[in-house]
Amino acid sequence: MNAKTLSVLVTGGAGYIGSHTTRQLVAAGHQVTVVDNLYSGHRWAVSPEADFHEYDAGDRVAMRALMRSRHFDAVIHFAGHIVVPESVSDPGKYYRNNVLGSLNLIECCEEAGVGLFVFSSSAAVYGNPATIPVHEETPTNPINPYGRTKLITEWTLKDFAERTGSNLPLRYVALRYFNVAGASLDGALGQATPEATHLIKVACEAACGKRDSVSIFGTDYDTEDGTCIRDYIHVEDLAAAHLGALDYLATGGNSAVLNCGYGHGYSVREVLDMVRKVSGNDFSIRETGRRDGDPVCLISDNRSIRKLLTWAPQHNDLELICSTAFQWERAKQGPKSRKG
Ligand code: UFG
Fold first, then answer.
1. For the chain, which residues make up each domain, given as ranges?
2. Nearest-atom index, ligand 1, CA of 122
3. Is the peptide bond between 295 and the residue preceding it cis, with omega within 30 degrees of 0?
4. CATH number of 199-230+263-331
5. pLDDT digits 0-9 by tens, 263-294
6. Annotated catalytic residue: which of 55, 94, 126, 146?
7. Does residue 248 have an active-site annotation?
8. Rounded to 5 degrees, what are φ and ψ at 80?
9. What is the pLDDT of residues 12-46, one digit of tens each?
10. Which residue of 79, 228, 265, 333 has the lowest C-beta tally within 10 Å?
11. Which residue puts its alpha carbon closest to atom 27 of ligand 1?
12. Chain centroid, CA 286 distance in Å
């Protein structure tokens, strides 16, 4: 698949999406270095073939030293905080880590001459889009701090890529993730984020008896069943999109911003029904008020990514997403079953 072996620095490679991507990069023959501060990632999740450094990706001194110690062809930047409601209650944490940390990293790349950059952006940059499905040209209007930090980093990349007088212009792909979920098909990797808040993860914990109930945050939205709609994408497909983006850049592709989703959505109630079905377990559901910062409906128009990258979804199936997530959750004996 790859034109050549690349030396790739993966920030956040011990986290959920980062660890799946690292594994695919290793399998594709790339040389992978992971940097992760283990804030929410786990050392066991990093492929043994990858070189590992426990640094903060925004630590300019550490990153500069690492980039001086060896050459990297590309950076894939996952490291960042990702919880929408937390970003509303603690915006400083998000601006510091997601905006300042990314700026530090981008400047280190520029100094070291690392010219290819793949960035974990988010559908949260759209806010409540005027049209569904949402296309990359749809105006961005984030409605929470998390989405704003992702958009600011996209702008930072654009400005650095277009800056005049640079010896080695940066080229980047920003992947705007929709709602990632599920676990690897072989059960080796999955979401192990402590105190997770994401719907499918939370529902699987409830189905395994690890929590008493699941709350539905808002049942009075303007949707068919009154709950929010999201475009859920399997983590292995999302990881594969990063390899596609890397290949695209390494073979001369121009900078691009691409939606990463399947192009159809499910309501919160539909997701909870599916988790009940695949688990065979009932769990109680509490209907509560709306959660701050939640858009009503996010569904991707994914024509651009399918056109530009050699990427096509392989696991476009809510049942598979929920069943792999549930099996992963069940296989974990508890929060302490794997050492982080
Ligand atoms: N939800 C519940 N109960 C829960 C958890 C979630 O009803 O216990 C609802 C939320 O209110 C929302 C939907 O389920 O309507 C999905 O919420 P998640 O927390 O699973 O995910 P978000 O949509 O808030 O955010 C995720 C990622 C972001 C990304 C976004 C893009 O965390 O990084 O998807 O759509 F930007």
1. 7-181+233-260, 199-230+263-331
2. 36
3. no
4. 3.90.25.10
5. 999 999 999 999 999 999 999 999 999 998 88
6. 146
7. no
8. 170, 165
9. 999 999 999 999 999 999 999 999 999 999 999 99
10. 333
11. 179
12. 28
